[in-house]
Prior knowledge:
Layout: E1 2-8, E2 14-20, H1 32-52, E3 57-61, E4 64-68, H2 78-99, E5 103-109
Parallel strand pairs: 1-5
Antiparallel strand pairs: 1-2, 2-4, 3-4
Helix pairs in contact: 1-2
Amino acid sequence: MINVRILRQKDGSIRGFEVKGHANYAKHGEDIVCAGVSTVTVGTVNSLEALTGTVMDSRMNDGFLSAYLPSDGMKDRGPQAQLLLESMVVMLNSISESYGKYIQIKEIIT
Length: 110
């Protein structure tokens, strides 16, 4: 199962996310759930950098991705970054609606 943690601040804004595990929906290379989650999450990190200039503090390994917004310098880009991150949450929830037994999403207030 893929476990996704959306890390929110008390004001509701997203400060980062963590993705761990494998869906095991199909064999390696044919797993559409893993491919979808990877595309959405890695694509969000790449979009934040390409469209807003925001470089997330990210780490990626087999079955793991963590990405956190920088702690400073987000004043001008904050709303754009939040829109992209909220879009990621919508896409992940869409995947979960169809493949819920392969992905779990939790939102954590930090």
